[in-house]
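Changelog note: in this version the structure field was regenerated for every chain. One regenerated record is shown below for reference.
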Amino acid sequence: MLALTRKKGESLIVNNDVEITVLEIRGDQIKLGISAPREVPIYRKEVYLQIQEENKEASNKDAMETLKGLLG
């Protein structure tokens, strides 16, 4: 993991087309602004993990239904 120090108003550039800016610092929270192309998905980690889990469950369910159809 790369750890960088940034102050309010300072930014990072990721992969030449994603800019992450520190907008606000309040206590132990920071507010980030992210500028990225529309085709780049951006999720909070907990939401991303939930989506991955749901996709995994749906994939397993589809596989079971396919097997049931093959086995009659």
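Spot check on this record: The chain has a mean pLDDT of 91. The chain is about 40% helix and 30% strand.
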